[in-house]
Amino acid sequence: MGTLMPAACTAGAAPADGCTAGCMTGTGCPAQACYVVSALPNPVAGFEGIDNDKLLPQYAVDGNTATRFSDEQAQMGGEYFQIDLCQSEDVNGVTVNDTVDTTDVATAFDVDVSLDGTCWETVFNSQNPANTDEIITFPSVLARFVRYVQTGNDVAVPNSPWFSIDEITVQCGGTPADGGTTADAATE
C-alpha cells in the first residue's frame, strides 16, 4: 500500500470520542449517522455570514447535497476531512459528491486510513482535480479512520476555490474467494 505516516509509527488504541454504543457494535459499514467527523482547518461557525450548513463538517454526512462542508480558505495542500467509523472495518472506497458546489473540488487528493487516528497510511493518490461525483476505490484495508486529504495548491487561481464536500461516504467490503469485490456503502 502507501507510506506510513509518521514513519515507523506504532498503532495504539483508538479513542471512543463521540461514538455511540450502537455504532461501535454494529456489523458492516456504519451508516453516515454513525460517523464522527472532523476537518482541518475546522471552519468557524457563521464565517462571513455564511450559513453553518454550508461550512461545518457534519453537513457533509447528513444525506443532503444541499448542505456541505467548506474549509473557508484557498486550497494550499494538507487540508483534510476525517471520518471515524467508530469501529474497524474492511474499507475499500470513498465516494465524494460535489455535484451542487462544483467549483470547490479538491485540486489533487489522497485517501489515508488508520486504525487509531495516529498512524496513517495512504491508500489512494490522485494528482488530478477530483470529479464532481468522485468514486474512489482501492484494495480492501482494515481501518477505523478515513481521511480525504486535499493535496493540491490553487492559491494563485483567481477566486481560489475552497475545499468543499457536499456529501461523503465510505465503502466497506472484502475481497471474496472468487476474486470479485463485495462492498456496502455507508448510507442512511
CATH class categorisation: Mainly Beta
End-to-end separation: 30 Å
Specify the structural class: mainly beta
Shape: globular
Number of discrete domains: 1
What low-confidence regions span 5 or more consecutive residues with pLDDT below 50?
A: 176-188
How many helical stretches? 1
- Helix percent band: under 10%
Please give the number of β-strands: 10
Radius of gyration, taken over Cα atoms and rounded to an integer in Å? 16 Å
Question: Would you mind describing this structure in some detail?
Answer:
The protein has 188 residues and is an all-beta fold. It has one domain: Galactose-binding domain-like (Jelly Rolls, Sandwich). 3% of the residues lie in helices and 40% in strands. It has 1 helix and 10 strands. The protein has one helix at 21-25; strands at residues 4-5, 36-40, 69-74, 79-97, 109-114, 120-126, 133-150, 162-165, 167-172, 184-185. The strands form 2 sheets. Strands 1, 2, 4, 5, 6, 7, 9 and 10 form an 8-stranded antiparallel β-sheet that branches. A two-stranded antiparallel sheet has the order 3-8.
Question: How would you summarize the topology of this molecule?
Answer:
Layout: E1 4-5, H1 21-25, E2 36-40, E3 69-74, E4 79-97, E5 109-114, E6 120-126, E7 133-150, E8 162-165, E9 167-172, E10 184-185
Antiparallel strand pairs: 1-6, 2-4, 3-8, 4-7, 4-9, 5-6, 5-7, 9-10
